[in-house]
């Protein structure tokens, strides 16, 4: 069992957390970064990043690896794929215990837990994940060669991925819960021009059915409540992300969207606890904005530590 | 084309390799995928579990999905209906005792290891 004192513990090793780690460890702070998954967060799930300054194109995996290596080079201790058992953030000395018995303390904590793919919450969604339900077109598109598929969502990601998936699918239906698209006009136009794509508005899937693999879905018209069954080979879900903040419920102040509320100094309602990246309340969620948040949180945490 | 993945895990290259590994080791976890967004997190968990030293009774290996030799995994009866990378198989005494499709988190993987590969 490990037990150590740090100046700052950062929860989350995505772009925000790693950036905080780089700034703080360069300032000679003793930094621990914890993540329940691998370093990189949602960045790892991005096939190609084309708008990160300094790189004309880089895989999310490589960008994550570079950031992690940089943080480690400056002295950050990074523990990935860990499970946090308990947290005590309200005391002056913050304490975090892992499920393996390791306990760490620090004077300051930065929450940079990021976000996670939103699920639709329909019956059978977990059961058929990887058996017809997918959240990654580039990963799983080729399993659906000449098959009929559905894409759920109405934003840029959904429409762009729908168009990309027609490379494989024989027919594609987009199901969207609203009566209007949330995507850019250019994305809507490209989707509408594609002869393989059809769409159903103001509807949602309420149940996935099948045996070994997905065979059909139950679709509900949200306006009328009418339900009907559609035979289908696959469903791709692109309905955005939600902040990964469940572990802080009741302790850290959040808004109705489970986003952490911070002040102008990136500090939460608890003194010495800062937050950065996709888990906070903000409008734009990009790698670059997460990096900026991570910088701000780190510099404010540094000022707090030097008080 | 390189017929292995760019991970720190030991790679299965041929069907015969896999057969030898599962015959010679009681507990084997093999993740078959690409260097894609859904696969990489699973390799990372396997690397961390291997490094931890707590799972020395399990052999962790990977295999490139596009390697023609990976037909033994792609066409395994336990993978029927799988349509999400990676395909992960857990072998005990040479037999498949669990198989999963698509990304898995550490809790899901540990649940299987602790259940199927209990010491």
Polypeptide structure, described:
The complex is a heterodimer of chains A (307) and B (119). Chain A has helices at residues 15-26, 60-73, 137-140, 156-165, 185-193, 287-305; strands spanning 3-11, 31-34, 77-79, 84-88, 94-98, 103-111, 115-117, 133-134, 148-152, 171-175, 197-200, 203-210, 214-221, 227-231, 234-237, 241-243, 273-275. In chain A, strands 1, 2, 3, 4, 5, 6 and 17 form a seven-stranded mixed β-sheet that branches. Chain A has a five-stranded parallel β-sheet with strand order 8-15-9-10-11. In chain A, strands 12-13-14 form a three-stranded antiparallel β-sheet, with no helix packed on it. With 307 residues, chain A is α/β, with parallel strands linked by helices. Chain A has six helices and 17 strands. Chain A folds into two domains: 3-117 and 241-305, FAD/NAD(P)-binding domain (3-Layer(bba) Sandwich); 133-237, FAD/NAD(P)-binding domain. With 119 residues, chain B is an alpha/beta fold. Chain B has helices spanning 15-24, 40-52, 71-74, 106-116, and strands at residues 10-11, 27-33, 59-64, 87-92, 95-101. In chain B, strands 1-3-2-4-5 form a five-stranded mixed β-sheet, with helices on one face. In chain B, a hairpin with a 2-residue loop joins strand 4 and strand 5 (95-101). Chain B starts with 9 loop residues before the first strand and ends with a helix. The chains are: A alpha/beta (307), B alpha/beta (119). Chains A and B meet through strand 8 and helix 3 of A and helix 2 of B.
Features:
heterodimer; A: 307 residues; alpha/beta; FAD/NAD(P)-binding domain; seven-stranded mixed beta sheet; elongated; B: 119 residues; Glutaredoxin; five-stranded mixed beta sheet; 32% helix; 24% strand
Gist?
The complex is a heterodimer of chains A (307) and B (119). Chain A has 307 residues and is of the alpha/beta class.
């Amino acid at each position: 069992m490990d037990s150590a004192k740090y100046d700052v513990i950062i929860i989350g090793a995505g772009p925000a957390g790693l950036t905080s780690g780089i700034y703080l460890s360069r300032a000679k702070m003793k930094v621990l970064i914890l993540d329940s998954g691998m370093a990189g967060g949602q960045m790892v799930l991005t096939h190609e990043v084309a708008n990160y300054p300094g790189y004309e194109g880089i895989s999310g995996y490589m960008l994550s690896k570079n950031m992690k290596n940089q943080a480690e080079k400056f002295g950050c201790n990074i523990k990935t794929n860990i499970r946090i058992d308990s947290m005590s953030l309200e005391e002056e000395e913050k304490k975090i215990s892992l499920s393996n018995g390791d306990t760490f303390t620090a004077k300051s904590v930065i929450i940079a837990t990021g976000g996670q793919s939103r699920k639709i919450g329909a019956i059978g969604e977990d059961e058929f994940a990887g058996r017809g339900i997918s959240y990654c077109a580039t990963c799983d598109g080729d399993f659906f060669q000449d098959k009929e598929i559905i894409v759920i969502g109405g934003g840029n990601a959904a429409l762009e991925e729908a168009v990309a998936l027609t490379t494989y699918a024989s027919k594609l239906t987009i199901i969207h819960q609203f009566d209007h698209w949330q995507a850019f006009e250019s994305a809507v136009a490209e989707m509408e021009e594609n002869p393989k794509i059809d769409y159903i508005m103001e509807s949602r899937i309420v149940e996935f059915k099948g045996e070994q693999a997905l065979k059909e879905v139950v679709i509900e018209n949200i306006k009328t409540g009418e339900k009907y069954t559609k035979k289908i080979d696959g469903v791709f879900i692109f309905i955005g992300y939600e902040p990964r903040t469940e572990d802080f419920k009741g302790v850290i102040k959040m808004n109705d969207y489970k986003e952490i509320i911070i002040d102008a100094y990136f500090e939460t309602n608890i003194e010495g606890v800062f937050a950065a990246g996709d888990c906070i309340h903000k409008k734009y969620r990009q790698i670059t904005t997460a990096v900026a948040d991570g910088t701000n949180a780190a510099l404010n945490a540094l000022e707090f530590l030097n008080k | 084309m390189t017929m292995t993945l760019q991970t720190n895990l030991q790679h299965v290259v041929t069907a015969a390799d896999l057969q030898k590994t599962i015959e010679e080791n009681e507990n084997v976890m093999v993740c078959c995928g690409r260097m894609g967004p859904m696969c990489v997190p699973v390799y990372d968990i396997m690397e961390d579990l291997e490094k931890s030293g707590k799972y020395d009774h399990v052999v962790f290996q990977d295999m490139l999905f596009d390697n023609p030799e990976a037909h033994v995994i792609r066409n395994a009866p336990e993978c029927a209906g799988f349509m999400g990378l990676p395909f992960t198989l857990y072998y005990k005494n040479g037999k498949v005792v669990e198989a999963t499709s698509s990304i898995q988190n550490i809790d899901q993987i540990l649940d299987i290891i602790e259940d199927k590969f209990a010491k």
